What we know:
By secondary structure, this protein is of the alpha+beta class.
Amino acid sequence: xxxxxxxxxxxxxxxxxxxxxxxxxxxxxxxxxxxxxxxxxxxxxxxxxxxxxxxxxxxxxxxxxxxxxxxxxxxxxxxxxxxxxxxxxxxxxxxxxxxxxxxxxxxxx
Length: 109
């Protein structure tokens, strides 16, 4: 019970950060999700934003938990080194994927 005021203060601080936009200013312009076609399995995969690293790179994962894509800090979808690169997103930039309608953006309203 003695930690309750501390927990409430932490939650209020986080909510204020969201309200004032200070958290949003620290996150790069990343989409909520990227949509890729896997040439090997002939299936579409939606990778949702999972982790944003300090350097601005991000990891997208599919709902089943498999790694979808890693986007470097420059906005390039990196080709994996530990598995076959069957997805058509690899090697493209977020700008290219946006132009092709292959991202889902955060609703910033």
